[in-house]
Design goal:
Elements: E1 2-6, H1 10-21, E2 25-29, H2 33-40, H3 51-61, E3 64-67, H4 70-76, E4 79-82, H5 98-110, E5 115-119, H6 127-138, E6 145-149, H7 159-164, E7 169-173, H8 179-188, H9 190-194, E8 199-203, H10 204-235, H11 239-247, H12 268-281, H13 290-312, E9 321-325, H14 340-350, E10 354-358, H15 363-369, E11 374-375, H16 379-383, E12 388-391, H17 396-399, H18 403-406, E13 414-417, H19 424-429, E14 433-436
Parallel strand pairs: 1-2, 1-4, 2-3, 4-5, 5-6, 7-8, 9-10, 9-12, 10-11, 12-13, 13-14
Helix pairs in contact: 1-3, 4-5, 5-6, 10-12, 10-13, 13-14
The site of nicotinamide-adenine-dinucleotide (NAD) has 26 residues, from helix 1 and helix 5.
Length: about 450
Amino acid sequence: MKITVLGTGYLGATHAASMAELGYEVLGVDVDPAKVDALSRGELPFHEPGLAELLREHVGSGRLRFTTSYEEAGAFGDVHFVGVGTPQRPGAFAADMRFVDAAVGSIAAAATKDCVIAGKSTVPVGSARRLADIARASARPGVDVQLVWNPEFLREGFAVADTLRPDRMVLGLDGADGARAEAVMRRVYARQLESGVPLIVTDYETAELVKVAANAFLATKISFINALSELTEVVGGDIRTLADAIGLDERIGRKFLNAGVGFGGGCLPKDIRALRARAAELGVEQSVRFLAEVDDVNTRRRGATVQAVTEMLGGSVVGKQVAVLGAAFKPDSDDVRDSPALDIAARLHSIGAEVAVYDPKANANAAKRYPRLDYVDSLEAAVTGAEVVVLLTEWAEFKAMTPAQLEPLVAVPQILDGRNVLDPQQWEAGGFTYRALGRRALP
Ligand code: NAD
């Protein structure tokens, strides 16, 4: 069985290399020639732990290739995975489906043999049925093209492991017509299924909704604890202790209860907005209206962080040296899409602070988005002369730093822990003024 992966970004490149790792011959397809050139040389154009090694190995062996040609892909693949982007539409909340529509239409038209198109991109409910129509209408006479929806749940930073050993797989089928496609997909994922990964086979609509529902739930959990942190800030409580205590309840669970600067990235923010937009189109806007508040709580955390920094600097940031640690939306990633860290850095700069940003992997991407910030190459360079240090992405390097390491370098020993990952007592004992979102300052 030969596999193509359409779109070779975070999802697609990971999926392509992982399919090669499973033993398949794989062809990755992208409309971006620079990306295809880099991948063809075995060079990963972004940071994802473990992926560069997998890419090099399988490009080297010839099992994994890349192209910009849909003609080549149409002749090659028995299964075509679709992993192109579905960003927020400019000026709206809805998902921009142009890339998925184009990819499905192009591959269906180019296919010269019976094949399955497996949609992995995150799409508004109702898309798969529409795309199946596009695929059927575009297919050549005598070529059977079936579409399944197979949403992707990988987490950046753990993308390879999540692809090879997912918690579960979901397959949305076109009713009884999906039997051939289901059999093909069971063969593709045979190794994972044999190792016990649960497979949920359902209809298109449920499969599409599983993905957005999962992301909406995770976003809600983060905003829940962040909303509570607005309360603990006022009454003088400690949000981390509160999260630990409620998290011990198995019905709640501790994961995704980390208060701080909030969520970001290329998925959660745009996915909850797209769900709201789709619900409105379907006339059930009120069903997910709470997601507006989830989004607002999340955005308010960014403002609250800027406010806290301002207070720590005596009421004005103008001309003050601020060390920002982190630009990526999460550690172990260089992804700065809708990153709270970078947004906060940019906001501080826009109101007059002198901002030095250091991220172990995301400086280059951040500089493309906000070229006017000062990007430096090390933690030490960032904190030298700082009047406040602001930890915004919880990289291991930042979690491991100590007051003794920073104290000789900073101008004023004070730190804002935007991710609630440092030990307040350690920093206070080390002579720092420590402040964290949702957590009282020690007396
Ligand atoms: P990305 O922007 O990194 O990659 C998208 C790629 O698609 C780009 O390389 C782009 O050039 C390419 N592309 C656009 N149009 C194309 C076309 N017609 N044919 C071939 N290639 C085309 O995006 P991503 O983060 O990989 O996300 C892709 C999809 O996966 C989105 O729907 C996203 O919501 C979903 N998803 C992402 C993640 C994640 O963690 N990144 C996890 C689960 C699901």
